[in-house]
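Fold it.
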Amino acid sequence: MSAFTAYRGAVLTDNIDDYPEGIILPIDKPYRWTSADVIRKVKWMAIKHFHKKNLKVGHAGTLDPLATGVLLVCIGKATKLADELQKSPKQYIAGVAFGATTPSYDREKEIDAICPLDGVSEKSISELLPRFIGDQDQIAPLFSAKSVDGVRAYEMARKLYKSGKPVDSSVLQSSRVSIYDLKLLDYKLLEASAGSQAPDSSNGASGRINVNSLEGYKLAIADILVDCSKGTYIRALARDLGEALGSGAFLSSLRRTRNGGIRVEDALSMEDIAAILKPESSCISND
């Protein structure tokens, strides 16, 4: 990887030509920001910093709005590396809520079914996880960017959801993915009276991103460390784990802790990015 990778404390000149292979910014994506929100914000700051309107900015591997963690943002010629960077293995900490399902397999949509917890325990989850390690065929959530006859799956899913019809992922073709390792980090029961608070959203979060409360539901929450290949949908893994235990499950939280060799501990906050991309003047070139 020959592009300049900026970490905390880095100082960028205001001349993009000083970075002939481009710049990679490892960003800790804020909660309830879409990946597109991050790109729009970084592009606006980068255009002002480098005084150029025609500046390419993109990301290498999207994160769901309700996920946080490592999002690699590429500036200039580094955008050509996006496909290569997306191939890197990923690591996540997934909060999997057993005992209910949602159409989106996360908290963006409301719980649509309550499921039994009889077969769900710390022991049963620990014994189940090894069965999901290895190469496997996975069906993505219908609320995803997969294509169905030239139409984005999420567009179809939104129409079905608004009309009150079942959101069924079976119309999607399965993809081959690899899960390298799964570890149960924590397990707890969420009593019906306890509720669950969503993390605070950072300034700039998309107002259209909904986060449903878990208050009033009895759920079992398992925090699972997932090492996997590109293209693995952790929401789909949560669904499959729930079904394998004779229950249902969805993601209550998700954090990408590593993308290739870049760890979330090394990632930049949006405040860090604002400090790095701080223009000395407001003059912008048309080049």
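The chain has two domains: 4-88+262-276, 90-139+174-259.
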